[in-house]
Amino acid sequence: MEQLKDNGFDATYSLMRVNDKNFYSGRKIDGIYAYFRGAEVLQGTIKKPKGK
Predict the structure, then answer these.
(1) What is the pLDDT averaged over residues 14-31?
(2) Residue-wise over 3-33: b if at least 16 C-beta within 10 A, else e?
C-alpha cells in the first residue's frame, strides 16, 4: 500500500478477513498484537518475532 501511494495513487487501503477470533481478541495488546488488538497503525516494516 505504501509503495502504491509513493508511486502516484491518491489513497490506498487494505481489508483483511480472518476466521480465527484469537487473531483479533485476547488480553495481550502489545508487540505484534498491538496492530490487530490495539490502536497501533499498521505501516512500514513489521518484523516477524519468530522464525525466518
Answers:
(1) 84
(2) eeeeeeeeeeeeeeeeeeeeeeeeeeeeeeb
